[in-house]
């Protein structure tokens, strides 16, 4: 298939683009490099440096489907700058959907998020559970999910939204790296690399066993492979939504401990206030995607995810 991967110079988009190329697809990456890196575009992919609001020209060349990763994705930043999140994530995606319609591209796999659920009433979270996002990031992604349902019904779009929980690990040297790093595992590994003195633990008074937030981690390779299954599952007029998690969670303190074991570094921690917008526990049931699309986790251990991320820090792509 001829595929457009928006945000394919970012962490997850680059791994998905690499896996698509391995399967013999023709891949064009569209990325404005606002947070991505040109050297993360996998060899073999064509690259267009542009915003998703400028996708019409590229799409008119003829594509079978879009895999849409390009987005603003930081919870804390979204609380401080909600307008940025609404305009990029919702406005940008509506422009992309419009361009797809004009070009006759009728399949999309969308990078949604666990943040659409907000503070859950129960765990693991099911796709049928209420969506009450606690921050503008989750709200903007939920609005896109709502738009996709409408577009599927009205225009026959075939859409699959994958609601990621936390993603970790690396593939082929493609790893998580942001100019301003906010994510837990990369920040902890920066301490082990000697780039930071300590890691801040945001909140130790949550209603969890050790007082720190609990998150559900999936290896980026397993996550990427779910996109390949989702692409095949796109059916005209249908919008399907699947959670992607492991069904179990690790606290911030447990993650730091695994990082200590993997790196052999003592990794000092400091306690900091809660980060606005963070739910206490986010753990997914992925039973639906397993049952309907046959998704399985080949790399389920947090230790392996941290080890792969650590190896990629030492030997980047
Ligand atoms: N976190 C932390 N210190 C950091 C970065 C993150 O304590 O330097 C916490 C954060 O508050 C959350 C968890 O680690 O409870 C996971 O945060 P991350 O930003 O990695 O992912 P998110 O769950 O926000 O998508």
UniProtKB/TrEMBL annotation:
The keyword Isomerase applies. Its EC number is 5.1.3.2. Keywords: Carbohydrate metabolism, Isomerase, NAD. Pathway: Carbohydrate metabolism; galactose metabolism. InterPro entries: Epimerase_deHydtase, NAD(P)-bd_dom_sf, UDP_G4E. It is an enzyme of class 5 (isomerase). Its cofactor is NAD(+). Homodimer. Belongs to the NAD(P)-dependent epimerase/dehydratase family. NCBIfam families: galE. This is UDP-glucose 4-epimerase. It comes from Microbispora amethystogenes. The lineage of its organism: Bacteria, Bacillati, Actinomycetota, Actinomycetes, Streptosporangiales.
